[in-house]
Design goal:
With 331 residues, the chain is α+β, with helices and mostly antiparallel strands. It has two domains: 3-207, Probable tRNA modification gtpase trme, domain 1 (Gyrase A, domain 2, 2-Layer Sandwich), CATH 3.30.1360.120; 215-325, Beta Barrel (Elongation Factor Tu (Ef-tu), domain 3). It has eight helices and 18 strands. The strands form three sheets. Strands 17-16-13-14-15-12-18 form a seven-stranded antiparallel β-sheet. A hairpin with a 5-residue loop joins β13 (276-278) and β14 (284-293). The N and C termini lie far apart (46 Å).
């Protein structure tokens, strides 16, 4: 089965028809989601680890095939070009990021390979990605897989796929598999779950406090502005990488004056990633990081904002007042 056939399979599946209206009725449901909106780069070769170590904010040598972690990819000024969910599988490293950034990021990484023995491939189409979230997730996965990861960011690789546990209010997993096993997995899970679209997965990521970098927000943030240090996405002992001087200076010599916050707006029109956050005087004090429809109506969003402006209150994005919410981790 080709990837095109996989998409055709989803379109014709009796259990497909994603729920596009996110409502409170979905809060306690177990949901399944095709994650084709996420891309996947594969980095391999004798020099792959050394190469990546000089490019990203985290220590890729810690990726032992049993864990995943976030890692930033910066320009020389320490501004993020991409945010990776990284993990090792067999003899290569995978970097997951929005599909829209796959081509430009792969091109940029290849510019720095030089004579190193490194191969960079886009494997977005050959590795199927499925999301599962909800109270029955563990029970349903246990019927298909011989081992289920227990801790957040724990990775388990099995014959019919790999399972990664993600943070969230309810058990949340990403399944990585091939086009041979994907239909069987989907057909086993879909009848017992609600099928949702990418917007719902975006909401789950936002509620977990996970930031993202899109084409519109490249070079807008240093890693600490997106709480990457609080998500264990920066290793300050690993040595040099592109942008490291700025990131380290922020950590050791200064205080982080801007952080990513969780907020809600009651609006029928969503702000977009990259839109400005304004204070009561109309001054720009932050940027929207990501946004999705909320269970309660309106939209939940992550926004990078000056801490002093958060304390002052009265913030708005796209003409709607921000109601600040509690992140699942401490700032």
């Amino acid at each position: 089965m080709s990837t095109q056939q996989w998409h055709q399979f989803l379109q014709t599946s009796a259990e497909q028809h994603p729920v596009s209206n996110i409502s409170s009725a979905l809060i306690d449901e177990t949901v399944i989601c095709d994650l084709s909106h996420l891309g996947l780069l594969q980095i391999e070769g004798a020099d792959a680890l050394t190469f990546l170590q000089g490019q990203v904010t985290n220590d890729v040598k810690q990726l032992n095939g049993e864990i995943a972690h976030y890692s930033g990819y910066c320009n020389p000024k320490g501004r993020l070009l991409a945010l990776f969910l990284a993990f090792a599988h067999k003899d290569h490293i995978h970097l997951q990021l929005p599909a829209e950034l796959i081509a430009p990021i792969a091109k940029r990484l290849k510019m720095y390979v030089m004579r190193s023995k490194v191969e960079i491939q886009d494997v977005s189409e050959s590795i199927i990605k499925i999301g599962l979230n909800g109270p029955k997730a563990i029970e349903l996965l246990s019927a298909l897989f011989s081992q289920i990861p227990q801790d957040d960011y724990e990775l388990v690789t099995l014959e019919n796929g790999a399972l990664l546990k993600l943070p969230g209010k309810q058990p949340r997993f990403e399944i990585f598999t091939d086009i041979a096993n994907a239909p069987n997995i989907w057909n086993s899970l879909a009848p017992q779950t609600k099928t949702v679209d990418a917007a719902y997965w975006e909401l789950l990521e936002i509620q977990a406090g996970i930031p993202e970098v899109y084409a519109k927000t490249q070079e807008e943030f240093v890693p600490q502005m997106l709480n990457l240090d609080l998500l264990n996405g920066i290793n300050f002992k690993k040595g040099c990488y592109t942008g490291q001087e700025i990131v380290a200076r922020t950590h050791y010599l200064g205080t982080v004056k801007r952080r990513t916050q969780l907020a809600h707006i009651d609006s029928t029109t969503p702000p977009n990633a990259g839109d400005d956050v304004l204070n009561s005087n109309g001054e720009i004090v932050g940027k929207v990081v990501r946004c999705a429809p909320s269970h309660s109506g309106g939209y939940d969003l992550l926004a990078e904002i000056r801490l002093e402006s958060v304390e002052a209150g009265m913030l708005a994005a796209n003409g709607s007042t921000l109601s600040m919410q509690q992140l699942p981790y401490e700032l």
